[in-house]
Amino acid sequence: MIDRRLLRNFNYPLILLVFITCLIGLAMIYSASHHLQDIHGFYARQLIWMGISLAGIAFILSINYQTILRHSYGLHFIVVLLLLAVVLFGPVVRGAQRWIFIGPLSFAPAEFAKITVVLSLAYYLGGAEEVKMLKKILTSLLIVFIPFVLIFIQPDLGTALTLLPTLFVMLYLTGIKKRHLLAIALFGILIVAPFVYHFFLEEYQRVRIQVLLNPGLDPLGASFSLNQSRIAIGSGGILGRGWLGGSQTQLHFLPAQYTDFIFSVVGEEWGFAGAVGLLLLYIGIFKSGVRIACEAKDRASSFLAAGLTTMLASHVLINIGMTLGIVPVVGLPLPFLSYGGSSLLMAMLSIGLLLNIHMRRFII
Length: 364
What we know:
Blueprint: H1 12-33, H2 42-61, H3 65-70, H4 72-89, E1 100-102, E2 105-107, H5 109-126, H6 133-152, H7 157-173, H8 178-199, H9 203-213, H10 224-235, H11 247-250, H12 262-295, H13 299-324, H14 341-359
Antiparallel strand pairs: 1-2
């Protein structure tokens, strides 16, 4: 049970912002899928996952985050084993191996790798003040590299990419000089990225990058999703077409409209005003995360809060950038909004850890 004294430090504004965003997500999932399913459709399953996720937050709050940090390597090792099991034994669903099925239930270990990477980096970097900088960098790269590769070959480029901003932000917080981080980034962009593009990306992934540079390429094929997303967002105007009133959504022109492209549904049905309102909710969540990181009582918890906030923020930036055609289409859900049990549980557990750090910041 949670110590009642800790409730005095509970961050009610943060959980309220998250709850409102989740309710908006339910409304958008219903709008995007009600004509496809009966009463037991996507929105109903998402509601069940919301209940499971809230229970997950309560469970996280009942454990001191420092205890969780001490077990971060073990948790990370378990998730890496699950990722390996997915690659070796996971069924191929829509051309990818991303899920583990247990009876009627399924989950994506890659979602939980995002959290264990942050936990492991926070535990290592938070206690590594006396470690030489080169060792810090190499060990941190190793923590990220193994799950990155296992996620990349599923293939799930979007999820793999979200690990990189988190790594860079947490390394920066340790005091690594900007020029060293810039050198690492330039090496990755100029040397590693072209090599990966030519030898490791699937053909459809290379085409998606080409579509980013030339949206008119293959309008009925590779660029169809991006073009439909832009049409949906643009047709919403200032105030939108109204809930259940978006033609791109209701006529099912918009692909993956209740998962990867749910922001396009928001733009079409609620317009510019609704999209900005949603962004303000996300900004409020991330500002709370930054404040928690700044007020944390030790280095490890500060790094943990900063890493979790960066990870969630990178999801939002990549997903919205994808729907607007600023970044390639990579198949990444929008936290708290997109349909998906694993992604929702991951995001809510991250919020649970942030609340945990905030609650215990004055407790010795």
